[in-house]
Amino acid sequence: MIEAKNISKKFGDLKVLDNISVCFEEGKTNLIIGQSGSGKTVFLKCLIGLYDPDEGEVLYDKIIFNQLSFSEKKTIRQKIGMMFQGSALFDSETVEDNVMYPLNMFTDKSSEEKLERVNFCLDRVNIINSNHLFPSEISGGMQKRVALARAIVLNPDYLFCDEPNSGLDPKTSTVIDHLIQEITEEFKTTTIINTHDMNSVMEIGQKVVFIYQGTKTWEGGGKEILYSDNPELNEFVFANAMAKQLRKFKLG
Prior knowledge:
Blueprint: E1 2-11, E2 14-24, E3 29-33, H1 40-48, E4 55-60, E5 63-64, H2 70-77, E6 80-83, H3 95-106, H4 111-124, H5 140-152, E7 158-162, H6 170-187, E8 190-194, H7 198-204, E9 207-212, E10 215-220, H8 231-251
Parallel strand pairs: 3-8, 3-9, 6-7, 7-8
Antiparallel strand pairs: 1-2, 1-4, 4-5, 9-10
Helix pairs in contact: 3-4, 3-5, 4-5, 5-6, 6-7
């Protein structure tokens, strides 16, 4: 379980996060949503330790993460899987080497053990016969799945996904969503997804947190959003629906 308690963050005089408290649940897909500039990316970076909050606490299974030393944080970071926006694969490395990278960095496994784990993870995300291809030789959807395989290769307790559907068509986005949900439930990870995609919210949003101008203004299940009386959330949902219809019109 990951818990944020009264998280605030400023850059200069600009207050980006204001007193946010959330409890993210194990074995569930926890989504953070909000407009561009709402503070959701800064919040995610505070959760994984890329930023230190000015106030508040980030707890991993009751351990106060942001008060640990660098070496103490490393122990928890080894339990974190991260799927970056845009996949962030190494262009000069093969699919196999990309997925193996965390194993080389953080384990003393033999070459045979590492390859076995890599193949297991690639198979789990439905990537076969692609070990020796380079990212430029596979589709955007396949790149996302390779990035997900790399994120789970250390069998993490905590999985973070930053805009996992960016740049994907709706059908491929749904495939990625369901893969993340299946892996979350199968391995009992605490999964936190940063997204603005309402399809993801409706498909896999078991817990959803809405951030507006740096403040958490709503949380609940994905299906409950349709019955919200929060005006900012309703505007966000409506804007997403209109954008979706406009994309369909342009493509049609």
